[in-house]
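Troubleshooting: if your tokenizer reports a length mismatch, compare your output against this known-good record of 127 residues.
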Amino acid sequence: GFVAKFLVGPPDGHSSTIPPEGRMTTIIPPWLRPGVRAAGQAAQTVTAMIPPDFTLLHLDRQDIGCTDTTLSSIVQRSQELQRYLRKMNDFMQVKPTDMLRMIPDFSDAYQAGITWAFCAVEYLRPV
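Known-good structure output:
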């Protein structure tokens, strides 16, 4: 049968015991922790300074760069991102030199995110 890997609480919310956590914890190599912490704080500060702008949601996808060709590449870009995430899955084994070799993967992940955002405007548009 199937085994639950994650449960928020007992099924009835009262009497059953909570099963142990089944997900793997995210581990960042010790040499990378200060940089990740600083990058996260910088990203949060910069993001908080950007005023909300919802005009993007009122545009047509073609007007912001999501051509039919781009739209048809979403499946491929999603698969590329999944490959990248699998590489990063065992993060404790990543060395500084590995990070340099993965720069093209970071670029692919960024491009996939931009493609999803620009192609999603017609689905996210307020009614």
